[in-house]
Design a protein that fits this description.
This protein is of the alpha/beta class. It contains 12 helices and 9 strands. It has 2 domains: 201 residues, 3-Layer(aba) Sandwich (Rossmann fold); 62 residues, Helicase, Ruva Protein, domain 3. Strand 3, helix 4 and strand 4 form a beta-alpha-beta unit. GO terms for molecular function: 16S rRNA (adenine(1518)-N(6)/adenine(1519)-N(6))-dimethyltransferase activity; RNA binding.
Length: 289
């Protein structure tokens, strides 16, 4: 393995020069905030526990700050980039700054929400700085599409990080919390200051670690069936589950029967239930509907 040069990572001046050369202005529409601090991207790679044998998939590499830090450690990195200009420029940046690792890098020019296969070996880790407006759907899509991903570390808006890592009973526990927990053990893994980005966002960022369950959730219900219950429960989160699940079950009485059969109080609310309890409710729909 060829060691990268000490200045291979992008600093503030490098990021601005690259952006200027490409005519790139970070857009709010895509939630683009480029990381300009080499220590931060190295910290992300450490926190993600990236190993020398990992094949890492990165979503939204932008100008390549995190990509280069990942290439310092991982065996391979595949980056998924939707932006035409950024996607076209990234391979040249990698080749110029880390020539000894360029053959370990692959680019997929696509919307991550439409990616269902990747070149090369199956990814073992997902590390990404995700725009807040698409963070949750992209994360869930990648976890569903690539079961080989064992470890995930995403940088997201702090509020989104709280929601993803929330436990039952928390005020911010909701659909993202339950669905992420279907796939993985989820926890907050740190905070990131605003000054490491260009432009500096007006929100704080947080790191979320997701370690995939070694055994899938034990349930006879499919993921879609469980997620349908979750969506229904939180669509009207102030209502009791008996009322909130009436449409899903066909009637309030059918919802109550499914809840009782699953050992869940019909008077409970969605925010108090674990993903296992949602799965039990899904299992009891057909015999009661």
């Amino acid at each position: 393995m060829t060691s990268p040069t000490p200045d291979a990572l992008l600093g503030p001046a490098d990021v601005r020069e690259l952006a200027a050369a490409l005519g790139v202005r970070p857009t709010k529409q895509r939630g683009q905030n480029f990381v300009i601090d080499a220590n931060t991207v190295r910290r992300i790679v450490r926190t993600a526990e990236v190993r020398p044998d990992d094949t890492v998939v990165e979503v939204g590499p932008g100008l390549g700050s995190l990509t280069l830090a990942l290439l310092e450690v991982a065996d391979r990195v595949t980056a998924v980039e939707i932006d035409d200009v950024l996607a076209a420029a990234l391979p040249a940046t990698i080749a110029a700054r880390m020539p000894g690792r360029a053959d370990r890098f692959a680019l997929v020019h696509s919307d991550a929400m439409h990616v269902t296969e990747l070149p090369g070996p199956a990814p073992t880790a997902l590390v990404a700085n995700l725009p807040y407006n698409v963070a949750v759907p992209v994360l869930l899509h990648m976890l569903e599409s690539f079961p080989s991903i064992e470890r995930t570390l995403v940088m997201v808006q702090s509020e989104v990080a709280d929601r993803l890592a929330a436990a039952p009973g928390s005020k911010v526990y909701g659909v993202p919390s339950v669905k992420a927990n279907w796939y993985a053990e989820v926890k907050r893994a740190g905070a990131i200051g605003r000054n490491v980005f260009w432009p500096a966002p007006n929100v704080d960022s947080g790191l979320v670690s997701l370690v995939r369950r070694t055994e899938p959730l034990k349930t006879t219900a499919s993921r879609r069936e469980v997620f349908a219950v979750v969506d229904a429960a939180f669509a009207q989160r102030r209502k009791t589950l008996r009322a909130a699940l009436a449409g899903w079950a066909g009637s309030a009485a059918a919802a109550e029967a499914a809840l009782v059969a699953a050992g869940v109080s019909p008077q409970a609310r969605g925010e108090s239930l674990t993903v296992e309890e949602f799965a039990r409710i899904a299992e009891h729909k057909e015999r009661t509907a």
